[in-house]
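Take a record.
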Amino acid sequence: MEPADRRLVMLLSLVAFGLAGILAVGPLGGIAHISDEVAYTLQAKLFAAGMRTGPPADEPSLLLYPFWQTGPRSYAVFPPGWPALLAAGLAVGVPWLVNALAAACLPGLSWLLAGAWQRPQEEARLAAMVAALSPGIVLLAGSRMAHTTVLLGLMLALVVVERRRDPPAAWLLAGLGLGYVVLARPFDALVVGGPLLLVGLLRAPRSAARTALLLPPAIAAGLLLLDNQGLTGHPLRFPVNPWFDEWVADMGRGPGCNRLGFGEDRGCHPTLGSWGHDPGKAASFAGETLVLLDRFLLGVPGGLLLVLLGAWRSRALAWPLGLTLAVVGGYALYWSPGNVFGARFWHPLYLFLPVLLAAGLGALPRPLRAASPLLLMLGCLHGLGRASVELREGYWCVNDRVARLLEREGVEEGLVYLAGGGERTEDWPWLGREGFSCDPLLASGAAFQLADPTRVQGGLQVRHALPDAEQLQLYRAARHPDARAWLIVHDLAKDQYRIRELPDPPAP
């Protein structure tokens, strides 16, 4: 790498880091928004305290939240890889730092991949710019979702596999990346990491490199199976599946709603107005996701056309075509559309999208090609601006006002009851979510993410309020007799909060 290119890549890494951090603490308010992020945050608190699981809820009905198991132990039902990594950020008080640091690595890896595919230096620079500025990358890097670190792990592997002749230490780094993906998003490890591992084993120049590549994901797979065994009693039974079975039992759904495939018994909530999953729904989800991917790639429509032009021009079709079929085909079998924070399920395609997009830009007429860095920057910043405006509106029905209320009242420990009523509809059109129904359970994520899951007494304990005031005080007297308590009432229709401290319960 020439000194000028090294300086450019370092600058773009700082830009990627800065944009992710600004989005995380600015429009996103420094908090988790969607239910997955809240569960990740609570699990990261357990890991930061040296615990895999927490104590069972003292009253499960008062501690009801999506993707959080309340008994006989409490834990998030997702694989442990990402919350374990997030715990490092939580331990130092800056949870956004983990994804921002991962995003900072992506421009350099895109530059290296362009070189491995023998693209001109001009295109390698543009690929690094796309990896730093693309709204689709920045949005997830600003969130508390696992996808940015998973993309980093996959890119480490792809770059080493394509360069072929790196020393064993580089192959070990690629293996560690794949091992992390196994622990964070096993399905991505299967459909994307699996082909990378197989090709890498064929291309590794010596046995030491093959061992270095294979050992970390093999160990990670063993750890994941042991974790499943400890939580569910079976190594192949992931915790999210029995949780879904219990969650939807009162809806008349039988067990196995979260399985892959088609049929009336697939799907844990209705999609497109009906239960079940079929090829027609999968095609509809794919079309919606394709529109989002195109919009989020450059911040303006048309990015995927440039990608197709770049693929045709560069003749780099093997990995892009194979991985696209694997990702799109794999997630077509899943019942959920997965369009939170953009084309979330298709995020692994950013492995090669920056390089192919840069190749497409390189095919433009000379005046447009000369202006492409400026046009690229303007389009991405436009897209990030549109996203930032919508994220400030309390994305996924969650905002930071609960935290500010508690801070204003000086509440750092004690019992916080949540009462919510009404519903409202929210629209985030640029982010691809319109007519979204906010309900009290989703909105409660603003408070539950603040709770201390390592214990059921002491610290900050968050509970749903009982409808009867006398029962509320009886529960408090029985379970938290010495704790101060506050009631937060949320009028969802008006999106207004009220907080008041409750009097001490009567002595038994």
